[in-house]
């Protein structure tokens, strides 16, 4: 299932545990770290621009 994070959160925000919420945040921070490490920036970062894939 691949949807943007905004839609996923709208559908599942009441079902997420704190562990799942922190894991999502950790993955976003890790991706931003990799982008910044390459001296790049993301100029339009919001939940609608983050692809969420649940394993």
From TrEMBL:
Cited InterPro entries: Kinase-like_dom_sf, Prot_kinase_dom
Residues of the Protein kinase domain: 1-55
Gene Ontology molecular function: any one: protein kinase activity
Lineage: superkingdom: Eukaryota
Protein name: Protein kinase domain-containing protein
